[in-house]
Amino acid sequence: MNSSQRPVVIGAGWSGLACAVQLVRQGRKPIVLDAAPSPGGRARAVDHDFGSQRLRLDNGQHLLLGAYRDTLELMRQVGVPHARVLVPTPFCVSYPDGWRLAATRAPAPWHIAVGLLRARRMRLGERWALAAWSQQQRRAHWRLASDMPAAALFAGQPVALVRRLWRPLCLAALNVELEQASARILLSVLRDSLGADEAASRLLLPCTDLSALFPEAAMQWLLANGADVRLHCPAMGVRAQNAQRGCQVLLREGAIATDAVVLAVPPDRAAALLEAAHPALEPTVTALRALRFAPICTAYLRFPPGTRLRRPFYALLDDARSARYGHWVFDRGALDPALDGILSVVISGAGAHMELSRDALGLRIAAQLCAEFGLPQPLDHFTIMEKHATVIPAPDLHRPGVRLPVAGLLLAADSAQSPYPSTIEGSVRAGVMAARALAD
């Protein structure tokens, strides 16, 4: 098979790898290009020296849900035993002060109903409001006639319920505040998780690093099945011969002629690659450049060995006025013994914390954890600031479709239109959709 018969996937993140795996399943042998030295994109492991220890941590804290059917299916396909690497936990929002709402292992919708009855420090009016709201969405099939800011969905909900449940879930799933978020996109996530069966609502906590969770196994599977994966090999541009013929992917040295290119890269990178590809792509490039991004910060703190939280993770009540910025904290040692004493704290979206240095933000997070849990001062800390972590899922968000107006050019990852936000599942689904579009 010559290279012109091999589709080229630009990007070896979760979306590009998902696309490549699906292409192999369809009988194609893709070429996968990535500038990075390792696969995984923005959901991969990084090495960091914590004192005398060199630890393999993640470049951001990510969770999976039982509803992530495409991700779980691809993990099975490449030989990752997700029963061993993911710890299923019933849906739960728990705070250090004792406020707690957790689903139970029961058929839907009883898993949520019983959880409401057993909720802690939730007032009767709040329980009733949550039950009535959920029933209203079920009757509407979790759909809206027109999009709106997600804050409007909860206009009649008790303030405490919005503060402790809906806002944290929006930040976790969409990485922006309720006022910025698309109600339609948030409802699609809630429909497939809380609105589905108990298994779909479970949180799947990784007990290994993100690279081992899928990217490394996917790369080995692709190589074993005839794909060509080239790391340290950035694409420099794409050129289309015309709207009906093949394309060229420009490299630092030479080019690859192909009949199909999938751009599984962030929107700004996709726009740069397509800028001079073909005149028909000018509206696509404009649309990609119009997309805006939200940051995610992940602080890692090393405490003395044996330091544990009572639960694997907690929600945190943030308050920027008192420099309490953390939204969620995870006890990494509870899931992976190699990370004994390591806590990770996630701050979703923009805010005053982005004006701080990484060191200063880590110190603020340490103070927040010490106040909430009575922990000693950490032995060490470091913070990862990902300024362009996710596309802002604004109401009526417009992203180009998977198929571009030039034959053989397709989009995946965060660049392509999707009912999902910039999550692992959203990226994986976009990659699979692009591969399937090539088969049509």
Explain what the structure shows.
With 440 residues, the chain is α+β, with helices and mostly antiparallel strands. Helices cover 33% and strands 21% of the residues. It contains 15 helices and 20 strands. The chain has helices at 14-25, 69-77, 82-85, 110-118, 124-139, 159-174, 183-192, 198-201, 210-213, 215-224, 267-274, 282-290, 332-335, 358-373, 424-439, and strands at 8-10, 31-33, 45-50, 53-58, 64-65, 86-89, 92-94, 100-102, 203-206, 228-230, 237-240, 247-250, 255-258, 261-263, 293-302, 313-315, 328-331, 342-348, 380-391, 409-411. The chain has a five-stranded parallel sheet. A five-stranded antiparallel sheet has the order 16-17-18-15-19. α1 (14-25) runs parallel beside α10 (215-224), α1 packs parallel to α15 (424-439) and α11 (267-274) runs antiparallel to α12 (282-290). The mean pLDDT is 93.
